Amino acid sequence: MIVFDLHCRDDGTRFEGWFRSSADFQDQLESGLLACPNCGGDQIEKAVMAPAVGRKGNQHAGVPAPAPDRRPAVQAGQDAAVATMAPLSEDTKKALFAMAEIQRKVLEKSRWVGGKFAEEARSMHYGEAEAQPIHGETSIEEAEQLIEEGIEIAALPFPVAPPDAVN
Ligand SMILES: [Zn+2]
User: Fold this and answer.
1) Ramachandran area for residue 124 (φ above 0: left; ψ -120 to 50: alpha; else beta)
2) How confident is the model at residue 167 (pLDDT cuts 50, 70, 90)?
3) Total of domains in the chain
4) Which partner for 151 in 42, 45, 125, 160 could form a disulfide, CB atoms 3.0-4.6 Å apart?
5) pLDDT tens digits for 5-14?
6) Of 60, 85, 82, whose CA–CA distance to 70 is shortest?
7) Residue 73 CA to ligand 1 centre (angstroms)
8) Which carries the bigger pLDDT value, residue 132 or residue 63?
9) Domain check: are 119 and 82 in the same one?
């Protein structure tokens, strides 16, 4: 991965863009895929080149990193107030949509247990409760502990709104 400092000619926003390579950046630029996180304008130019730095590992335990060779993410820049995503290629969008759809289908048969995930997962693992698919919330530390205990869990690739939080 390579990181470029980008600059919006419209409002002067500076932000970082991550690209597979210099050519990848050129491709995205020429296809008009790059947009300013602040105003959405496409008058983007390269500011100063920064050294390539590896991204920190995925923080969700057990999640395979999605398409690591094509993960264009824009981080919140010096002047940008919020973190934004770089525009995704059509292929990436399709792949993400398909994954989200799979997750939705899987969860249809799964019971939401909210913050009791670790507790429920343990009782099922140790035979105190009937095994059934569940999903809920847990901390990274707790998830790591569950995995250490040999309990098979996986982080969901997409955030899930708790049923009681859906408007
Ligand atoms: Zn802008």
Assistant:
1) alpha
2) low
3) 2
4) 125
5) 899 999 999 9
6) 85
7) 17
8) 132
9) no
